[in-house]
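Appendix B, example 12.
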Amino acid sequence: MLNLKVGDEYQALMNRLSQIDEEKLTATDFYAKLNEIRFELNLLKARSDRCEESSRESGFSFHVGEVVSFDTWGALEQRYTENAKQADELETKLYSNINSYDFKAMNIKIRARVDFLDLYFEITKPSTRHDIKKFLTEKTGIRHYIKESLNGYVIRLHDMNSLKLLNERLRCLDHFGLLHQSMKIVELEVALDFYGYKHLGLATALLKSLRLPSTANNFRVFKTQTGVFIPIPVNPIVLHRKLKDGFNIGMNHRLADEYWHIYQKQTDQNGTPLKESEWRIRAEKNIKAPVLKRLNNSFSNIRQLLLESYKGLRFTHLKAEALCHQVDVYMNKIDVYGMEKESYFDSHRNLRKLTPDIEMNAELSRLVVNAVCNLAKNFKHYS
């Protein structure tokens, strides 16, 4: 057994160890302080060992305080580390609960963005897909995905967050005799970006609170594998580890008419890392042609189409008067609590689709509406 002769300095280190257990520290700060104390303890041990060796060589007796086993330190360290782990897990569960959020007070900014849109168009000038791609690359410096479709083509346009940007890009197609009346939006992906988030648990909180139709299915996490189904973990701690490891959350098949996607965005569309200040939690909704056609997918209707699309990114929360059991379940178990059920009348004879203990999140709804309206202003000339 390795022993350490210590006195007041050892006791001071033990007192500091007790204090950090009582402080409200993040896991990073806790381990930093723990390592600092461990380092000082090792220095104290080395000094004590030198003193003991010197006393043996000189024949004098040397004693500094009590003899304390390093096993004592190990037990204390294990205890405090376990406490820190429990505190860290509680923090994750709290941040994974949308009821824990005051977005304004926490300075979390919400921005509405068009991730991409697929635009169908026809031209009068005889040209190939390759001709169009080559011309656009030369004029814009950006490579575009273009495919043949029906009597024309479909082009994918990323980050078109204003009508001005769209028109600038489409002017390049006038070179080929663009038929403006032919333009239809055949796929659209809109997003809500949450900047300034403090914890990855926000992604879990959005999942648990996202309002989904009763037909939604295929709830999963995924990374790079294709054809591998991994169900969303029930435990928020396990999902948090997945998210830290780069996993995404998906709802419905990605080729379905409607598809939802939640993840931590740290790169741009080309895979280039973003500055940390530009990292955000992103919630996306992808909408395919069958749904868009029902909403009138003419390009001239783009502003209204955006407003309708964002109705698929709404959020709920647990009612304030929910029972303790319901609060505990909501905190500790991951589920799609905002998923609609078969319509029913509540005790006040109101027709409802959400479970009795879930309601729309009024505060978050206001912030989302503001973000969407700010985006829609950029498209107001095509209303």
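The chain has two domains: 3-80, 109-382. The two ends are 80 Å apart (CA to CA).
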